């Protein structure tokens, strides 16, 4: 009869020793992380490719083309409106500046006239008090 | 051990956490595969595949306990799949070569012989023995991992131990292990 038969726990202890966890091979973790990184890149690439492959369907292609065309037309109209508003604003500004210039020159003219009148008028004589006031 | 949360935002676990998990459990996963397949290269490849699968599904795992359970389960199932796919030659207990001389208790060959005997067990009993004696798992936990009744696990364990004891007795003689 062997020792293991005498004590069944001996076999179990021996199994625990024999099946003790072993160290993973050197660089194992680095290899896993590198492969995980590759997996991420591949997944991203696949996602990108699947996004592009959507346009291989004629309906999607035409829909995309129509959407782009509509966007371009709306954008063009909006841009034209913006340009027109800007041009109108610029013209109004020019008119205002002209009006201000005219008003300024008129004011200057009026000021000169007033000055001329003031210089040509004789100095007013000082008035004596009337004799009646004395009595 | 209380379940440790992986991260506050579990669905978006950082890659640093994954690296930490790999370093912490690489020995466990590799050893299960190594003891099951007895081929270092195949065990390493299988263990890497297990961790890559973990990387892809990490966001669904809630705690570190859950990760550990998941790793054991996936490793066990992958071991069986690998063996079936590759149809690795399985040496029966009776066909395992006899040692040249009776082994000594301190002899590392004893451990190697035991590993060979375990490797010659059928798939399920082999996994059960590995999970029981490598991972110190209770039959109830093994039953959960392998999705089988506890009674079946216990029965496999008893039969495997009996087979191994018989083989040890026949091949190693009066060895004190």
| Cα shape of chain B | globular
CATH superfamily of the largest domain in chain B: RNA polymerase sigma factor, region 2, helix turn helix motif
Q: Which spans of chain A have pLDDT < 50 for at least 5 consecutive residues?
A: 1-5
Number of helices of chain A: 4
Folded structure, characterized:
The complex is a heterodimer of chains A (135) and B (177). Chain A is mostly helical and 135 residues long. Helices cover 77% and strands 0% of the residues of chain A. Chain A has helices at 3-6, 8-18, 28-53, 58-120. Chain A is elongated and about 155 Å long. With 177 residues, chain B is mostly helical. Chain B has two domains: 1-88, RNA polymerase sigma factor, region 2, helix turn helix motif (Rna Polymerase Sigma Factor, Chain: A, Orthogonal Bundle), CATH 1.10.1740; 91-177, Winged helix-like DNA-binding domain superfamily/Winged helix DNA-binding domain (Arc Repressor Mutant, subunit A), CATH 1.10.10. Chain B contains seven helices and no strands. Chain B has helices spanning 15-37, 40-57, 64-86, 108-119, 123-133, 139-146, 150-172. Chain B is globular and about 50 Å long. The interface between A and B is large, with 29 and 43 residues.
Task: Sum up the structure in keywords.
heterodimer, A: 135 residues, mainly alpha, 4 helices, 77% helix, elongated, disordered N terminus, B: 177 residues, Rna Polymerase Sigma Factor, Chain: A, Arc Repressor Mutant, subunit A, 2 domains, 7 helices, 67% helix
Structural topology:
The complex is a heterodimer of chains A (135) and B (177).
Chain A: H1 3-6, H2 8-18, H3 28-53, H4 58-120
Chain B: H1 15-37, H2 40-57, H3 64-86, H4 108-119, H5 123-133, H6 139-146, H7 150-172
Helix pairs in contact in B: 1-2, 1-3, 2-3, 3-5, 4-7, 5-7, 6-7
Give a brief outline of the structure.
The complex is a heterodimer of chains A (135) and B (177). Chain A is an all-alpha fold and 135 residues long.
